[in-house]
Design a protein that fits this description.
mainly beta; Nuclear Transport Factor 2, Chain: A
Length: about 140
């Protein structure tokens, strides 16, 4: 995942889209959630990822073809990662600099965190438990 303007790692299957290539139902859902906000768009799997800035923060939102927001991602300072994540990264990725960090909120309300290092996203749950490693 990721951004937005290089947020925490886009998948290899992502492709940039022109505004005209984004379905109107997706654009309408984005406009309802983020009025008066401009986004750049990518195809993200079966959904559409809009990248934008809100309140000075880089963000992205993934919207499925039916207009449902499936997740939002907000860039955060690396120092804002929960302590258990920092501890895990220091132990298992010692000496590797965390390049970017993000907080991801799924449609279900579940929260994940992402720490990006050298072309990989390390994903954690809200409590800082390791979930997976993804190649960008």
């Amino acid at each position: 995942m990721v951004i937005m303007l290089d947020i925490a790692g886009f998948s290899a299957c992502e492709q940039k889209l022109k505004e005209s290539q984004v379905p109107s139902i997706v654009k309408a859902a984005f406009e309802r959630a983020y009025p008066n906000t401009k986004a750049t768009w990518d195809k993200e799997g079966e959904g559409y990822e809009g990248e934008f800035k809100k309140d000075g923060r880089e963000m992205s939102v993934i919207i499925d073809g039916s207009g449902n927001i499936t997740e939002t991602e907000t860039m955060i300072a690396v120092t804002d990662l929960p302590v258990p994540i920092s501890d895990y990264m220091n132990k298992y990725y010692s000496g590797m600099k965390i390049e970017e960090a993000a907080k991801i909120i799924k449609a279900s309300g579940d929260v994940n965190y992402e720490a990006e290092i050298k072309e990989k996203d390390i994903v954690f749950d809200a409590n800082g438990n390791f979930l997976k490693e993804e190649k960008e």
